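Incident log, structure service

09:12 report received: a user says their structure output differs between two submissions of the same chain.
09:20 pulled the input from the user's history:
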Amino acid sequence: MATIEECREALDRLSGNLARADGDVRGAAALDRSLSCHITDLDHTFAGRLDGGRIRVDAVTPGPPATKADIRLAMTGDDLVALVGGDLHFAKAWASGRIRLEAGLRDLMRLRKLL
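09:34 re-ran on a clean worker, output below:
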């Protein structure tokens, strides 16, 4: 089982990957939205912002998200690490329910380019 530290490192790697992206991916990641990622098996939430193509984590708290972020993710720590490491395909994991993504329709339309 992935640890909180490994999940934080995975989010930092994902942020770096988004910042280095170009084309449609860069445009899709260039949102300014609040973001939460609930790690279900560890019952901790990373909260922050997707801003300028980077993920900024402002807080890590126990339990589910305290407030409703614009973009909400939920998955196990192992799935987060596998996703960022390239061992798990987001669209397949989302379609099977392993990863939950909730956002407004406009944000979902832009984020689909990341999938």
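09:41 both user submissions now match this output. Likely a transient worker issue. Closing.
09:42 reviewer note: The chain is about 40% helix and 30% strand. The CA atoms of residues 90 and 96 lie 10 Å apart.
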